Amino acid sequence: MDYLYTLSGFGVGAIVGLTGVGGGSLMTPLLVLLFGVPPATAVGTDLLYAAMTKAGGTVAHGRKGHIEWAITGRLALGSIPAALITLWVLSRMPKGSDVIGQVISNGLGFALLLTAVAILFGRKLREYAGEYEDSALRRCCLGRITVGVGAVLGILVTISSVGAGALGVAVLFFLYPKLSPVRIVGSDVAHAVPLTLVAGLGHWALGGVDWPLLGSLLLGSLPGIWLGTQVSAKVPEHILRRILASMLVLIGTKLVFA
After folding, report:
1. Which one-letter DSSP state was computed for residue 31?
2. How far apart are CA 44 and CA 214, in angstroms?
3. Which three-class secondary structure state does DSSP give residue 162?
4. Please, which residues have CB within 8 angstroms of residue 45's CB and are 6 or more apart in sequence?
5. CB atoms inside a 10 Å sphere around CB 85
């Protein structure tokens, strides 16, 4: 089975390299639906997988000056406490029952549907935000709104491992339409590292991380990401994003209504 995990990691890594999204939103449901990994274990393993893979991206973006640390800090100010509270709530749920698995499955499906919307309508959201970038609400409360958005992302990511990528980028584009895309992505990647690390370690403490599985996924995904990045310029991105969004809608619907 290990080689199938590695092969799956390679495929997901290639999609991430091609489109910039799809890590947690594909990896976690793949583990749950195709390999039968318990939802809590799939989420915990994927969270640490994300923390390790995005740490390298943070270093690269940081060296190029692509990270708005003030924005990253505001997001973390909301997301880290929210992640800790969510972990505490999960820890209080009955052990050995299906409650945690059901909560995580439903949360995962909901997060996938939101991510699909973010992928499909991200450009329209940015255009709409650009029209109202000087609104009174934005001028007076942008910092507090960013902290609140971080809290919502913290809950979603801790429950489902989904939301730190495409959903976070879409929200930042909406809140900061004047910021360049590369700075949006860099800031989102930098925020994802501490969030996924805290959430992943919390799931580990709850017994929800499979370390051999994590190693197998990393073994395949790292070369997959490299290959996808190399050929990304040759593949129409808008077509890939639509296919990816359609897949997420189908998977999310299955998880929510299963």
Report:
1. I
2. 10
3. coil
4. 31, 37, 208, 209, 210, 213, 214, 217
5. 14
Q: What is the rounded distance in angstroms from the CA atom of residue 159 to the CA atom of residue 44?
A: 9
Q: What is the mean pLDDT of each run of 10 residues along the chain (258 residues)?
A: 82 73 76 86 90 82 87 96 95 74 82 80 70 64 90 92 80 83 84 93 91 90 78 67 73 72
Range of the domain at 184: 2-257
In the chain, alpha helices (H)? 2-19, 23-29, 39-63, 69-91, 99-131, 136-160, 166-175, 181-205, 211-231, 237-257
149-174 b/e with 16+ CB inside 10 Å = b?
bbbbbbbbbbbbbbbbbbbbbbbbbb
Q: What are the angstrom distances between the C-alpha of 38 and each of 104, 171, 208, 246?
A: 10, 30, 9, 24
* Chain centroid to CA 35: 20
d(CA 39, CA 28): 8
- Report the alpha-carbon distance of residue 159 to residue 47 in Å, rounded: 10
Confidence at residue 87, expressed as pLDDT on a 0 to 100 scale: 94
Using an 8 Å Cβ cutoff, are 76 and 191 in contact? Answer: yes
How would you write 192-252 as a 3-class SS string? HHHHHHHHHHHHHHCCCCCHHHHHHHHHHHHHHHHHHHHHHHHCCHHHHHHHHHHHHHHHH
Residue 179's pLDDT is: 82
Residues 185, 166: Cα–Cα separation, whole Å: 9
Question: How many domains are contained in the chain?
Answer: 1
